[in-house]
Design a protein that fits this description.
The protein has 576 residues and is α/β, with parallel strands linked by helices. The chain has 15 helices and 20 strands. The strands form six sheets. Strands 1, 5, 8, 9, 11, 12, 13, 14, 15 and 16 form a ten-stranded mixed sheet that branches. Strands 2-3 form a two-stranded antiparallel sheet. Strand 15, helix 14 and strand 16 (484-489) form a beta-alpha-beta unit.
């Protein structure tokens, strides 16, 4: 899933894509530091800079197995910009790996990529894990986190790679090929990273001192999988709103689509099952119960956990009477169905198969509506049917909306866990970390992981990431903060947006943690009001300061108002 989305118009396959973005990491070690609980972890040394000697003849010098270099051209400073600032001069290398013709669907495949190598290099490599269905080589910039970014990894001097993850179109048709499924799941990054480091060696006369991997949405999933499968390749992992159990999240969203369809007043329009006015009603009710729990009535719910205990959909939202639904109440049927969805999707036997979603303030946005009402019919359906299900459906007769609304949820769950003679690895294997709570490789070599997740994410639940982090803590004696820290972003939707302070740079504190041993006690985030250099966020309430800041706190801490000071200023809040 991702902030980027492509739609194929005028066919049953319409809009069969998902959406998001990502990054990457590697290096040596220089001594030992004491982590929480007196556990000694290696301290990695800092990267040193370098200079790109030449771009014009680089294509002829690069040699790596199963790799074809198409071009290497110089890009002048300012051709790319970020937040109005010019990006420095660099060399753009384009190529592909493992070109082949599928024996199953007879289509041509390759892992397409581009690398951007700055003239003034900081000695670091960044793997940009793109989101959604991949299928396109996006500009290799390297996102640093959140929305309206003011800088990029490339802008900071990293060498950056971006890829299409092994298929050349952002539709689920590639799922007919078993190898393309595996490349999309995890193998493309495992093939690309050593090649990219070899290109860097050729370009600069030495390999990267430190390597980083990151992305949001499916890019966050890519990052979590890479940390688990390729922990020796990277030194820092930046994980945003991860769909790390993506097949289950997609099926849960299909179950949600079926529920909203049952509530809809206009057949085929899921949004009429939970209208914008009704979602605003619930968001305001959540704020009424939860806004002040952090000590400040500021339109933000910082203490997400306490809010779930304080708010009741049944009690705190009016129930419609004889006059029916008019935006000022929810019907009894709505309360039952919507309450069950927020509690977590269930199998036919009543067993929860995906996480709960927290009640939060960002339910009435366009981002929330897109993922809940459009995605089940046009995005999740195609991914489940063609990329993860065994066997996949026949594309010639596939209709996404019909598939989503008529499929049995238990059947879908069985199919994404299935294998056969052609598809020998299930989606629940190739899409997920092999051992979700085992990140011992990165821990023991001194690598670090930072995660963030918006609490109003409508497609991948921040509760799911919190549950994963709880399992990681349990697997590490109750404390994983020496190598992994998780930051919830109050009010933020999927990777950005929502009534939130969603503008932040998590790459810089990750580098400082990896290379200097400076563990992040908080990350300061800003709202994007009118005039913001990275672009305004339309979901920011007019009553907020256009430059409001808040600390993002390492879970399970939350930001609490100090009792005095400007409520628009992060300095007036502490992580407790």
């Amino acid at each position: 899933m991702s902030k980027q989305r492509r739609v194929l118009k005028g066919a049953p396959l319409a809009a069969l894509c998902l959406a998001s973005v990502a990054l990457n990491a590697c290096g040596g070690r220089d001594g030992v530091v004491a982590a929480p609980g007196a556990v000694s972890l290696p301290q990695l040394s800092a990267a040193g800079g370098g200079k790109l000697a030449n771009c014009s003849d680089l294509a002829s010098k690069i040699s790596y197995p199963n790799t074809a270099i198409a071009s290497a051209v110089s890009v002048e400073a300012g051709v790319l910009t970020v937040a109005g600032k010019p990006v420095q001069a660099h060399c753009l290398v384009k190529g592909s790996m493992h070109q082949r013709v599928s024996p199953v669907d007879k289509q041509s495949y390759a892992i397409g990529f581009e690398m951007r190598l700055p003239v003034d290099w900081n000695g670091r490599f960044f793997y940009q894990a793109n989101g959604g269905l991949d299928g396109a080589v996006l500009t290799a910039r390297g996102e640093v986190g959140g929305g309206g970014q003011l800088d990029t990894a490339l802008g900071q001097g990293f060498a950056v790679i971006s890829s299409d993850a092994g298929h050349g179109a952002a539709t689920p048709l590639f799922g007919l090929d078993p190898q393309a499924r595996l490349d999309y799941g995890y193998q493309a990054s495992g093939k690309l990273a050593p090649m990219a480091k070899s290109v860097i060696q050729t370009a600069y006369g030495r390999g990267p001192d430190r390597s980083y991997f990151g992305g949001c949405s499916n890019g966050g999933r890519h990052t979590m999988v890479a940390a688990a499968r390729y922990g020796e390749q990277f030194d820092g992992y930046l994980v945003g709103n991860p769909g790390f159990r993506l097949p289950l999240a997609a099926i849960a969203n299909i179950a949600g689509g079926q529920a909203y369809a049952s509530l809809a007043t206009t057949p085929g329009d899921l949004s009429t099952g939970f209208t914008a006015a009704e979602r605003t009603l619930v968001s305001k009710a959540v704020l009424g119960k939860c806004d002040a729990l952090d000590g400040a009535s500021d339109g933000m719910v910082q203490d997400t956990g306490a809010c779930q205990a304080a708010f009741s959909l049944e009690r705190d939202v009016p129930t419609c009477g004889a006059s029916g639904r008019d935006g000022s109440c929810l019907s009894t049927a709505q309360k039952g169905a919507i309450g069950r969805l927020f509690s977590g999707a269930l199998t036919g036997a009543g067993t929860k198969f995906y996480s709960s979603f927290p009640y939060d303030a960002g339910l009435d946005t366009g981002n929330w509506a897109f993922w809940k009402f459009f995605s089940p019919l046009q995005l999740d359906s195609g991914a489940v049917a063609m990329i993860w299900k065994v066997p996949p459906v026949d594309p010639a007769t596939f209709n996404g909306a019909a598939f989503a609304l008529s499929s049995n949820i238990d059947t879908l769950l069985a199919q994404v866990a299935a294998t056969d003679a052609t598809y020998t690895e299930s989606a629940m294997s190739f899409m997920l970390p092999p051992h979700p709570a085992d990140y011992s490789t990165i821990k023991n070599r001194g690598a670090k992981m930072m995660l963030y997740h918006g609490t109003s994410d409508p497609i991948f639940s921040s509760d799911d990431t919190a549950a994963w982090y709880d399992s990681l803590r349990a697997a590490n004696g109750g404390d994983a903060s020496g190598f992994a820290r998780f930051f919830r972003v109050p009010g933020m939707n999927h990777c950005s947006g929502g009534p939130a302070a969603d503008q932040f740079d998590m790459l810089t504190p990750l580098v400082n943690w990896v290379e200097k041993g400076q563990a992040p006690a908080k990350v300061v985030a800003s709202v994007r009001g009118a005039g913001n250099a990275g672009g305004a966020n339309a979901d920011v309430p007019a009553s907020w300061s256009a430059t409001r800041t808040r600390p993002l706190c390492p879970y399970p801490q939350v930001a609490q108002y100090n009792g005095s000071g400007n409520v628009e200023d992060a300095a007036s809040f502490s992580c407790k």
